[in-house]
Amino acid sequence: MDDVVVDVIADPGSGTAEVVDLVDGVTAAIGHAALSEHKRDELDGWSGVSGGAASTELGDEAVGVVARSGDRRRGLLGYAHLSVDSRRSQFAVELVVPGSTGELAAPVADRLLDAVEEQVAQRGGGLLRLWVALAGGSDDARAGDHGFAPERDLLQMRCPLPLPPDDAHDVPLVADGSVRLRSFRPGLDEDAWVVTNNRAFATHPEQGQWTKDMLVDREREPWFDPDGFLVLEAGGRLAGSCWTKVHDATVPRLGEIYVISVDPDFHGRGWGRALTRAGLDWLSGRGITVGMLYVDGANVAAVSLYGSMGFSVDHVDRAYVKHVAATGPRTAAEHATAE
Known about the structure:
The chain has helices spanning 17-30, 37-47, 108-122, 137-145, 190-200, 212-219, 271-285, 300-308, 332-338, and strands at residues 4-9, 61-69, 78-85, 90-96, 126-132, 149-160, 179-183, 229-234, 237-247, 254-262, 290-296, 312-324. The radius of gyration is 21 Å and the shape is elongated. By secondary structure, it is α+β, with helices and mostly antiparallel strands. It has 2 domains: 4-154 and 318-338, Gcn5-related N-acetyltransferase (GNAT) (Aminopeptidase, 3-Layer(aba) Sandwich), CATH 3.40.630; 162-288, Gcn5-related N-acetyltransferase (GNAT) (Aminopeptidase), CATH 3.40.630.
C-alpha cells in the first residue's frame, strides 16, 4: 500500500471537480449510482452544482477523503465520503473506487477506510456505518477485515410495467366521497406530508427523519414532478402517499417508487398496495417499462407484498457497522510514520 496516499479535503469549495468526475465515471461504468442520493447532494453542494445541498441533511458535517498514487501523477484512485452526525456520535461512509464493479478494491479501499476511521476517531469516535452498493462476498470479507459486521441489506427490486390486473388483491382507493387521490401541491402539502411520513417510518433509521427543508430541497431537483407525487386524503387528513421518481439516465429508464407511506391510523385497509399500484400505473403512463423500489431486506412483509405484485430482487446494497474509539489528532511525526 506504499504507492497509495490519502488526503482529506479540508476546503469543500475547492478540489472537488475531479471527485465529481470520478463519481460520474464510476456511476456510468457500473450502471448504479456510485454515491447514495444524500451523499451526492452533499458533494454537489460542495461543488456548487445546482440542486446540491452544501450541508448534511441528517448530520452536521461532511468530510471527503481522496486516494492518489504516491507520485501524484495519476488521477484519483478513489474517494470516500463521510457524513458526520456529532449529536448522535454516528458516522456514515461510502467509497468510490474505479474498476471495483461494486466490490471494495484493495489496496485503495483499505487506505480510504483507515483514513476515514482516523477522521471518526478524531471527532470523538462513535458508530461508523459503511454502505456498499452492489455488495458481494469480497465486500463482506474486506469489511470483516476492518472490524465491520453486517447490519442491514437494502434490496433493489424491479418489475415489468405495466402491471397486469389483479382483481383478487387490488383495493380501490376511492371507495366513497371521504377518500381522494390527488397530486401533491408544492407550498401547501409539505407540513402534512412530513408528519404522515415520519409517523409511518417512526422506527426507521433514515426514512423517519424527514424535515420540511429536506422536502423543499427535493422539490428543487430537476427530476421532481408533483404530478407523480400522489397523495391520499381520507377524512380531511393526509393518510398516505406514493412519491415517484423517473431515472432518465439509466438504461432502461427506471420508474422508482421513491417514498411510499401510510399513516399508522389507516393501516389494514390495503392502501399500501393500492398506492404502490397507483404510482406504478402513473409511471407506466409516462412510457416507463421497468418499475423499481428499495426495501429493507428484513421487512419480510413488504418484500412479500412487492413479490406478489411482480417485483424481484435486482441487487443488494449492504450496510456494515463498527464502533470506533476516540483518539486525539495525530502529530506530524505519527502521520509520517503511518505513511
